[in-house]
């Protein structure tokens, strides 16, 4: 499909979207382009109308693609066609008449506090660089709530142990400062003693065995392996530890605005989803504790 390449450049350089986001958008658009070519023999984007987009949505539903994924793909198309309209490539946006499928709202999956305690207190990590790094990766994800992409990009000079803070680069290249605990400071100090001995072209805090920057699959596997030891929850990803951080903070008295700032959410509505987990906890406590519950 025309204009995908220029659209991706626009996302990367003007909207300052993350490379991960741009790759996801490009994949969605290439799949949509393939649908247009196979089903309608279309190559000209200006010929796409709302009926064609509805047909595409129906085909996704027939393929049993989840409504969450479909809505994400629709969001990609909305952004793409807005870009085309802004650049006067099309006159009318065919997405304006599209109603997105309803999605079932699910609560964020998180690891409970007892399981987190088992992860850090009852699992034995070795004293070599790899094992110390593994533990610190888990500690940082849980203790700060940072995203996977932010973890990978942490530089050694982004850590201020004197002021107990870490600087991370979030979505749209927005920097934010995250506080760390004294316990986490000690973990980082122990790790840095070994890390600074490594001669690498990368200034990233965490490296692979080949002394190169970490990649997402590496962290996914690491988190999945360790969480599988302590919990039976269905999802065991780095993002689950982010959910866990926010849920535990809220359950232990932190206010939503503080959590919002630490997580780097642009609006409070994104953070409010964690209140549902807290409400469920309150219901359970009430059921167990109240004589007439």
TrEMBL record:
GO terms for biological process: cell division; chromosome segregation; DNA transposition. It holds the Pfam family Phage_int_SAM_1. It is found in: Cytoplasm. Keywords: Cell cycle, Cell division, Chromosome partition, Cytoplasm, DNA integration, DNA recombination, DNA-binding. The active site is at 147, 171, 239, 242, 265, 274 (o-(3'-phospho-dna)-tyrosine intermediate). Residues 1-85 form the Core-binding (CB) domain. Residues 106-287 form the Tyr recombinase domain. Forms a cyclic heterotetrameric complex composed of two molecules of XerC and two molecules of XerD. Site-specific tyrosine recombinase, which acts by catalyzing the cutting and rejoining of the recombining DNA molecules. The XerC-XerD complex is essential to convert dimers of the bacterial chromosome into monomers to permit their segregation at cell division. It also contributes to the segregational stability of plasmids. Belongs to the 'phage' integrase family. XerC subfamily. PANTHER family: PHAGE INTEGRASE-RELATED, TYROSINE RECOMBINASE XERC. This is Tyrosine recombinase XerC.
């Amino acid at each position: 499909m025309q204009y995908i390449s220029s659209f991706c450049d626009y996302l990367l350089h003007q909207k300052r979207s993350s490379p991960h986001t741009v790759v996801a958008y490009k994949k969605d658009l290439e799949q949509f382009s393939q649908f247009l070519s196979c089903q309608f023999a279309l190559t000209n984007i200006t010929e796409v109308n709302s009926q064609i987009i509805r047909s595409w949505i129906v085909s996704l539903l027939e393929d049993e693609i989840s409504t969450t994924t479909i809505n994400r793909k629709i969001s990609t198309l909305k952004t793409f066609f807005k870009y085309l309209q802004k650049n006067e490539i099309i006159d009318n946006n065919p997405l304006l008449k599209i109603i997105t499928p309803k999605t079932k709202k699910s609560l964020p999956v998180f690891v409970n506090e007892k399981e987190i305690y088992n992860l850090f207190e009852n699992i034995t990590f070795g004293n070599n660089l790899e094992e110390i790094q593994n533990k610190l990766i888990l500690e940082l994800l849980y203790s700060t709530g940072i995203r996977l992409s932010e973890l990978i990009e942490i530089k050694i000079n982004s850590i201020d142990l004197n002021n107990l803070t870490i600087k991370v680069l979030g979505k749209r290249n927005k920097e934010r400062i995250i506080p760390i605990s004294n316990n986490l400071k000690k973990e980082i100090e122990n790790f840095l003693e070994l890390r600074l001995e490594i001669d690498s072209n990368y200034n990233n805090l965490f490296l692979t065995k080949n002394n190169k920057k970490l990649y997402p699959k590496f962290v996914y596997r690491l988190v999945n392996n360790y969480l599988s030891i302590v919990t039976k929850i269905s999802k065991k990803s780095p993002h689950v530890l982010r959910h866990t951080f926010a849920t535990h903070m809220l359950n232990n008295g932190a206010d939503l605005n503080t959590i919002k700032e630490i997580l780097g959410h642009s609006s409070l509505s994104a953070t409010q989803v964690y209140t549902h987990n807290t409400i469920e906890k309150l219901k359970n406590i009430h059921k167990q504790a109240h004589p007439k519950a």
